[in-house]
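Technical annex, item 7. During the second reporting period the consortium partners agreed on a shared format for inverse folding records so that results from different sites could be compared directly. Each record opens with the tokenized structure and is followed by the designed sequence. A conforming record, contributed by the partner at site C, is shown below for reference.
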């Protein structure tokens, strides 16, 4: 009887443990620094965050790819999205000088804009893709969470 009671207790505890899903991640790591996700944002992968007004993808590159990959990626995205002509701009990735391409395109909900920034920060070549519904002319046009990674003026 005692063994049966222990078995029953063990199975009840085990079923509770297996019934719980793991907590959703609340942070993203970029170049060794942790960033807290804003309310309403979801970590789609270890390198991609979807928020209410933005999507951001963080891509690590090697130094060889840094010279050609960003331009090719931007051209392919613009073609896929049937976007406006690419504009080249300067920006900062985590306070390191960088370059970027930006373009707009039509969606069912209106216009969307992509900013594809690339450069070296903390010794690591990176590409940061931000999609938002506001054309980023100045840093404040970039959502606050994404602005931690890329901003337009120092």
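Designed sequence (site C submission):
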């Amino acid at each position: 009887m005692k063994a049966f009671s222990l078995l029953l207790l063990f199975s009840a505890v085990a079923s509770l443990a297996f019934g719980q899903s793991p907590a959703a991640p609340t942070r993203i790591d970029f170049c060794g620094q942790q960033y807290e996700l804003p309310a309403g944002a979801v970590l789609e992968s270890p390198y991609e965050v979807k928020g209410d007004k933005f999507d951001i993808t963080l891509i690590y590159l090697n130094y060889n790819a840094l010279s050609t990959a960003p331009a090719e990626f931007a051209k392919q995205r613009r073609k896929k999205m049937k976007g406006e002509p690419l504009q080249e701009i300067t920006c900062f990735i985590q306070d390191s000088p960088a370059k970027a391409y930006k373009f707009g395109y039509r969606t069912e909900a209106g216009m969307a804009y992509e900013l594809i920034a690339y450069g070296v920060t903390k010794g690591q070549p990176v590409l940061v893709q931000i999609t938002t519904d506001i054309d980023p002319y100045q840093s404040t046009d970039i959502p606050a969470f994404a602005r931690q990674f890329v901003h337009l003026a120092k």
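The radius of gyration is 21 Å. Strands lie at 27-30, 33-36, 42-45, 48-50, 54-60, 87-93, 96-107, 110-121, 124-132, 150-151. All partners now use this format for quarterly exchanges.
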